[in-house]
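Design a sequence for this backbone.
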C-alpha cells in the first residue's frame, strides 16, 4: 500500500483492487501515464496534475488510462467553457448558499450497504425567487468537490435520490433541454465520481416526459442506473435499506434536516444571510444556452410540448417498478 491509499480501509482496498483494477505496485506509473497525456491538449489549462488529483480520475474510470485522461480533460474544459459558473465558486456565494440551505444537495448520515454516500434532493424546495437552477448545479458540483476528497467515496461512489413531490409544472418548465444538458455535461461527463444509482420517487408525468427527452444524452451505463419508482417506495427499499432512510422516503429515521450538509460546508457562516438578487447573476440560463456548441443546441432545441406527450395514468405511475437494474 502506498501513501496515496492511506485513507482506505482494508475492505475498500480490496474493492479497489477487484473492481477498479487498482494495483499499489503500479500506482505511480498509472498516474504518470495519465499525466504524460496532458501535453496532447495544449488548448486546455490543466490547473492540477498532482498525484492525488489524477488518482481520483483513474478510479472513476477503473484505471483505463486514456478514459481517465479524457475525463480529466473534460473536467477542465467544462470549467473553461463555463467560466461564469465557477466565479465565486464557494459555499458563501449567495446563490450557492441559498441552494445549499434548501438542501441542494442533502447528504444522509449513513452510507448504504455498499459504502456509498447517499445524496438527496427535494425538488419542490427550489425557490425561484431566491436562486437559479444554475445556482443549484453549482451547489451540487461544489458539494461533490468537497465529498470526493474522501478516498473511500472515490472508490465506493454515490447514490442519488430525487423526490419530486409537489414539484409544479411551472417549476418543471424551467428544466429546458439546454439546462439539463449543461447539468449532464457537468455531472456525467466531467466529474470523477462513481454514481451507483439515481432514484426518482414521486415523479409526476411531466418529469417522466422530461426524462424521455434527456435519455438520448445519457450514457448507457448511466441509463442502467436510473430508477423511476413513482410512488412505489417498496421498490426503493429493495435497493436502499429503509433503516438508513428518513421518513420522507418511507424510512425508519426522522425527517431529513435540509440544513445538515449546508452547516457542514458553511460552519459559523450558516446563519449569516445576505441579500441575493437572482437577476444579478452574471450568466443567466439564456446566456449559458448560447455558450453550448451549435451541435448541442441543434440536438436540444425542441421544447417539451405537454399536449403532444401521453399523460401517464396516475394508477400506472403509483405502481411503477424500477425500469432497470443495477449491473
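Sequence:
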Amino acid at each position: 500500500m502506498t501513501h496515496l491509499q492511506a485513507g482506505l480501509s482494508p475492505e475498500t482496498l480490496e474493492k479497489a483492487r477487484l473492481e477498479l483494477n487498482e494495483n499499489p505496485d503500479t500506482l505511480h506509473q498509472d498516474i504518470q501515464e495519465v499525466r504524460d497525456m496532458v501535453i496532447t491538449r495544449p488548448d486546455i489549462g490543466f490547473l492540477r496534475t498532482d498525484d492525488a488529483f489524477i488518482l481520483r480520475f483513474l478510479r472513476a474510470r477503473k484505471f483505463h488510462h486514456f478514459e481517465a485522461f479524457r475525463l480529466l480533460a473534460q473536467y477542465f474544459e467544462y470549467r473553461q467553457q463555463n467560466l461564469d459558473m465557477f466565479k465565486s465558486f464557494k459555499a458563501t456565494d449567495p446563490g450557492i448558499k441559498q441552494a445549499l440551505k434548501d438542501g441542494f444537495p442533502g447528504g444522509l448520515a449513513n452510507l448504504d450497504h455498499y459504502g456509498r454516500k447517499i445524496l438527496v434532493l427535494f425538488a419542490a424546495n427550489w425557490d425561484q425567487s431566491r436562486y437559479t437552477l444554475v445556482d443549484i448545479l453549482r451547489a451540487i458540483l461544489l458539494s461533490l468537490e468537497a465529498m470526493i476528497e474522501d478516498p473511500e467515496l472515490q472508490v465506493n461512489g454515490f447514490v442519488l435520490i430525487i423526490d419530486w413531490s409537489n414539484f409544479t409544472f411551472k417549476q418543471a418548465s424551467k428544466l429546458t433541454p439546454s439546462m439539463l444538458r449543461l447539468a449532464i455535461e457537468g455531472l456525467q461527463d466531467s466529474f470523477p465520481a462513481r454514481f451507483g444509482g439515481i432514484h426518482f420517487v414521486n415523479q409526476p408525468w411531466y418529469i417522466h416526459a422530461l426524462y424521455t427527452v434527456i435519455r438520448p444524452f445519457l450514457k448507457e451505463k448511466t441509463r442502467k442506473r436510473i430508477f423511476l419508482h413513482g410512488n412505489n417506495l417498496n421498490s426503493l427499499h429493495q435497493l436502499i435499506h429503509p433503516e438508513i432512510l428518513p421518513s420522507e422516503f418511507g424510512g425508519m429515521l426522522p425527517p431529513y434536516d435540509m440544513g445538515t450538509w449546508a452547516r457542514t460546508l458553511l460552519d459559523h457562516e450558516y446563519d449569516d444571510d445576505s441579500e441575493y438578487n437572482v437577476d444579478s447573476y452574471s450568466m443567466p440560463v439564456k446566456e449559458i444556452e448560447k455558450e453550448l456548441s451549435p451541435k448541442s443546441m441543434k440536438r436540444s432545441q425542441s421544447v417539451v410540448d405537454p399536449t403532444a406527450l401521453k399523460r401517464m395514468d396516475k394508477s400506472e405511475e403509483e405502481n411503477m417498478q424500477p425500469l432497470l437494474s443495477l449491473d
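Strands lie at 106-107, 117-122, 158-163, 195-201, 226-230.
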